[in-house]
Design a protein that fits this description.
Layout lengths: L2 E5 L2 E6 L1 H10 L7 E4 L6 E2 L29 E3 L6 E3 L3 E4 L2 E4 L3 H9 L13 H32 L4 H30 L3 H5 L2 E5 L7 H16 L3 H4 L10 H6 L1 E5 L1
Antiparallel strand pairs: 1-2, 1-3, 3-4, 5-6, 7-8, 9-10
Helix pairs in contact: 3-4, 4-6
Length: about 260
């Protein structure tokens, strides 16, 4: 009986046992690839197929796209039960496919406000505000201690007015460097600053992926721009559908709940 496999919502085949066995050996068909042959009730991952493929030394033929019989549809996988179904037998909601059997439970979960797999839960204005206050306190405490130590050292040296002005300039520059390093390192390395970690938040791209150090670096300067607009850049997050502040718009980021 011939074998078929599905990939990117396209089906390929038919293949003989020997051809199919060789494709498995070469990695064309993996344990997660959906496969089907006569006698099977549904498309299933190859890992669930309990059969021993006969060895073959013949090279696998080029993939031949399967020409489906009239009325046959592309196969998609239900996000709830993970079984494969023809596309016209499922519903689609925000990129997720749901079969008729799973639909009642799926709809009930939506009514109860449950989040879907892969759905981002955007962090609201006030929880983001709290995270920012926590980060500000951490940075403020560090800068205070650093300034105190340097100030006492300068006072012990005589307290020259010109030296004090130069010291103040240096402290301001050091504060900027600390702020850049703080937000760039934590957001780039962990996806969240300590304040956001404490609030269960993280920064991601528009696709939900972790941000890079470069984007974290750019986001810090965009965050300053949000502050320089009389805090309007922060406030717009309260009215944005995806809870984006100005710096999120500029850097194409989102702040989500873990």
């Amino acid at each position: 009986m011939p074998w078929y496999y599905a990939q990117s919502n396209q089906r390929f085949g038919p293949y003989t046992d020997a051809e199919f066995s060789n494709m498995v050996a070469q990695g064309t068909v993996t344990m997660d690839t959906l496969v089907w042959r006569d006698g099977m009730q549904n498309w299933v991952p190859y890992s669930q197929v309990q059969t021993t493929m006969p060895p073959s030394g013949a090279a696998a033929p080029p993939a031949r796209e399967y020409t489906a019989p009239s009325g046959d549809q592309s196969m998609v996988v239900c996000s709830s039960c993970h079984r494969a179904f023809p596309e016209d037998e499922v519903i689609q909601y925000q990129g997720a496919y749901v079969c008729a059997t799973c639909k009642p439970v799926f709809v009930q979960r939506l009514r109860e406000g449950a989040s879907l797999a892969g759905e981002m839960r955007y962090a609201g204005f006030w929880i983001r505000f709290l995270a920012y206050i926590l980060d500000s306190l951490i940075l403020g405490a560090f800068n205070f201690v650093l300034g105190l130590v340097i100030g006492l050292s300068a006072a012990a040296g005589g307290g020259d007015p010109d030296a004090m002005v130069g010291l103040q300039i240096v402290l301001n520059l050091v504060g900027i460097v600390i702020g850049v390093s703080y937000f760039t390192f934590f957001n780039g390395r962990f996806g969240a600053t300590p304040g956001k970690m404490a609030c269960g938040l993280r920064v991601v791209t528009a696709e939900g992926q972790p941000i890079t150090y470069l984007r974290a670096f750019a986001r810090y300067w965009a965050l300053l721009l949000s502050a320089f607009t009389l805090l309007i850049g922060f406030i717009i997050a309260a009215f944005d559908e995806q809870k984006r502040a100005l710096h999120d718009h500029i850097c194409s980021t989102r702040v989500v709940r873990k």
